[in-house]
Amino acid sequence: MMSDGDAGRSGAARPGAGSARRARGRPRSFDRETALEKALLAFWEHGYEATSVSDLTRVMDIGAPSLYAAFGDKRSLFDEVVRVYGARYGSFTDRALAEEPTARAAVARMLREAAAVYTEPGRPHGCLVVHAAANCSNPEVEQSLRERRTANVAAFERRIRDDVAAGVLPADTDAGALARYTGAMIQGMSQQARDGASREELESLAEIAMSVWPHAGTATG
Amino acid sequence: MMSDGDAGRSGAARPGAGSARRARGRPRSFDRETALEKALLAFWEHGYEATSVSDLTRVMDIGAPSLYAAFGDKRSLFDEVVRVYGARYGSFTDRALAEEPTARAAVARMLREAAAVYTEPGRPHGCLVVHAAANCSNPEVEQSLRERRTANVAAFERRIRDDVAAGVLPADTDAGALARYTGAMIQGMSQQARDGASREELESLAEIAMSVWPHAGTATG
DNA sequence: TTTTTTCTGTAACGACCACTAGAAAAATCT
DNA sequence: AGATTTTTCTAGTGGTCGTTACAGAAAAAA
């Protein structure tokens, strides 16, 4: 058919890094990364189960056999989507934890950036990791995202413990509870974003959330 | 078949309140309220879409035609389930708002009771209103629960405004942001409960969440 | 008893689900 | 050119979805 202009055969990804020689057989008519990003947006908006393979082939603009040849089955496509999402849209938490000098500053930055990321115009609102496997009949899919969420909370807890050990936070700080509080806050912000809260609303919400932290030296509210 | 003991024909609800005369035709072989509660638990655990009519007829132990005759279609059964859930399991927020003397006390009680309700043994964890319509292909179902969530946040906000007007809370309190913060906290606690957090963990989380509130006179933390 | 009314079990309906067999098409290799 | 390899399109597969037609069963009404 090829009815949509000259969108076809534009990509034809290289077979290997650095090699300019083409692959052997008929080349792919679509760009794999572009199609993957379309799948990512669909899964992000509607979740794993509510996004049918038929939906996917429509938004990716490819036939079902092409999808299965390029990405495996629906499950492995979703797994790849989750990896790409984590690297492209979900890495702000890891960056904040790694780059900010204190746990408090890291969480403050995380919540501020979450307010922006979860309400970015032109993209699904909220966090794919929080929502995309909710009410999923496949327990493995649900578990895979649950593990990512608990891993995030565990990373918060480690960062808080570091600050307690360094004397930046009080010695009697309940690191586990504070980490879970932070995780619940982010997940609650994601839910609020899905329910229509604006970036500014989430930012003022985040500011309130930060007031539970002891202020290390400075007096900022 | 009637293979499960004498469980059948036990209920046969009265046709009208006070009237002892039986209904006209063949009496129902199951207790409507019992079956409705089973449907409630199924929808609570797996959500609207992931709970198939086949799942429902199995857990309610009735045939599909009986389900449709007694409850209408799947959608209207879910609507009734949501109403019953709100009255039986979700009313603790309204009670706290109505019975506690201040917004702060009401929210403190709400979060404390949420920690218990969302982790009650033998029941699905978390809140049906938060989770059961996530990733739902039917936008009306998703919207109906979204409206309940936003109505709850609006009720928080009204209660907070009352305290601001009464001088119980500072005049510069951002009632909307504090209400959304509370809603996000409850929703985050529900998500944490789904992810396996215990009642005690949610309680210490709630205690942290309450520390953002100005303390009206008393010194409790 | 016969009629009327309502419920119950069987057994399907069309629509969609994730997935794939098979043939034609488009490239490289010989 | 012809052979080989890979992708594409068409057209399905069996299974499950929500829902219902139909006939028999169980009660009250006549």
From TrEMBL, chains A, B:
Domain HTH tetR-type: 29-89
Single GO molecular function: DNA binding
Pfam family, one: TetR_C_13
Domain of life: Bacteria
Residue spans of biased composition, Low complexity class: 1-20
Start-end of DNA-binding region: 52-71
InterPro entries: DNA-bd_HTH_TetR-type_CS, Homeodomain-like_sf, HTH_TetR, Tet_transcr_reg_TetR-rel_C_sf, TetR_C
Stated name of the protein: AcrR family transcriptional regulator
Organism: Streptomyces griseomycini
